[in-house]
């Protein structure tokens, strides 16, 4: 019998693996009743990471309601003070990178994580990732415009401050790009 606890434990292990090896693609194959327009990977990732002590922002009303019910997370009307932002690539705004919590030197962990459901991981623009968890460098293709990475890189230039990205796609692929990872366009 596979309960939601077993499911989220498995996904948590996959997310830890992806976060410790930026650019590594994890496929989240667990099944979930998904009433949103987001991928199962996006919904399951949020279900795994959210609890009743975090706040999240999503402009998508259905996703906001699902996450509130499934996780007990606190929907936030203000993206600039939310712990997590959950969005589709098509709904992404520059403000989501510029005006979110980036941490402060005494508490760099008080920063936002952007969970973005994109069109494709494995197809599109090629990027080279380097930094902690990557031996020398690793290349990845994403259908994610380089202009968004330019904004993300600007926000993350003053380590330990910055934001983390979790990218999912419709094939339930998941990639974690921590603030410590350098991203270059190839």
UniProtKB/TrEMBL annotation:
A Pfam family this chain is assigned to: PhnH
Keyword annotations from UniProtKB, A to Z: Lyase
Gene3D superfamilies tied to this protein: Bacterial phosphonate metabolism protein PhnH (3.40.50.11310)
InterPro entries: PhnH-like_sp, Phosphonate_metab_PhnH
One Gene Ontology molecular-function label: lyase activity
NCBIfam families hit by this protein: PhnH_redo
Protein name in the entry: Phosphonate C-P lyase system protein PhnH
Protein's organism: Jeotgalicoccus nanhaiensis
Phylogenetic lineage: Bacteria, Bacillati, Bacillota, Bacilli, Bacillales
Gene symbol of the encoding locus: phnH
